[in-house]
Design brief:
With 83 residues, this protein is an alpha+beta fold. Helices cover 19% and strands 22% of the residues. It is built from two helices and four strands, in the order E-E-H-E-E-H. The strands form two sheets. It has a two-stranded antiparallel sheet with strand order 1-2. A two-stranded antiparallel sheet has the order 3-4. The longest helix has 10 residues, at 52-61.
């Protein structure tokens, strides 16, 4: 599908047909990505942490939810020597 660029101030824009927006579940916001010479529009999720509970459950089942820092690590830097 071709779309004509229209001037919007110093920028350019395109009109996206409503049927395409609906098909892609795009309402008010999109995420823009650049890949090589392409502009990719993706629907912006309304709930940024959607799916996290399921992801954490799967991590726990796979025993992939271990601490990245050793519990004995001096994260408060109390015994660090600064030079």
């Amino acid at each position: 599908m071709k779309a004509r660029l229209v001037s919007i101030g110093d920028s350019k824009g395109i009109k996206i047909p409503a049927v395409i927006l609906k098909q892609c579940h795009i309402e008010n916001e999109v995420n823009l990505e650049i890949e090589k010479d392409m502009i990719i529009l993706k629907s912006a999720r309304e709930k940024p942490r959607e799916g996290w509970n399921e992801a954490f459950r799967l991590m726990h089942e796979k025993k992939d939810d271990i601490l990245l820092l050793d519990e004995t690590a001096d994260v408060k830097m109390e015994d660090w020597e600064w030079k």
